[in-house]
Design brief:
The chain is mostly helical. The chain has five helices and two strands, in the order H-H-H-H-E-E-H. It has helices at 2-31, 35-39, 55-61, 72-102, 112-140, and strands at 106-107, 110-111. A hairpin with a 2-residue loop joins strand 1 (106-107) and strand 2.
Length: 145
């Protein structure tokens, strides 16, 4: 039983590691493809399926006046929105967690554990309510495959 357990444990750890790392390797590999390699069909292995090029990275380094892409402003906009939303979430979450741990609330049959469960449920439910329709719209409009 010990050898089977050890085999299954390492098998699932290896499977999960490949499952997690593969998208990152795919993104890095795609960053070294030219336009035709990206849009011309499935190519996966560098130097076998396609010749790696630095065209995509050169466009990022060039200034917008020289035919490059302006990524600095959108990057900082995303960074600002992410940090602001995280700060608001942390402050409100800390205040509500303190109140739920320090005081006993009772409104009819609703108690502290019910309120805590509501926070967990609302967090996950909101994600599914917003992400799934957006993915459905993207698929219907053929933005993603």
């Amino acid at each position: 039983m010990g050898k089977l357990y050890k085999f299954l444990k390492y098998f699932f750890i290896t499977f999960w590691a490949v499952f997690v790392v593969a998208p990152f390797l795919w993104a890095i590999s795609t960053s070294f493809k030219d336009f035709n390699s990206v849009n011309g069909g499935a190519t996966y292995i560098p130097w076998v399926d396609f010749e790696p090029k630095l065209e995509g990275w050169k466009v990022l380094i060039k200034s917008p006046a020289n035919g490059g892409v302006d990524i600095v402003e959108p990057y900082f906009n995303s960074l600002f929105v992410t940090c602001t939303a995280s700060l608001i979430s942390i402050v409100l979450g800390t205040l509500s967690a303190y109140a739920l741990s320090r005081f006993t609330f009772k409104a009819g049959f609703v108690k502290n554990n019910d309120i805590t469960f509501f926070f967990y449920f609302a967090e996950n439910y909101a994600t599914n309510c917003f992400i799934n329709p957006i993915l459905f719209i993207f698929r219907c409009n053929q933005f993603i495959g």
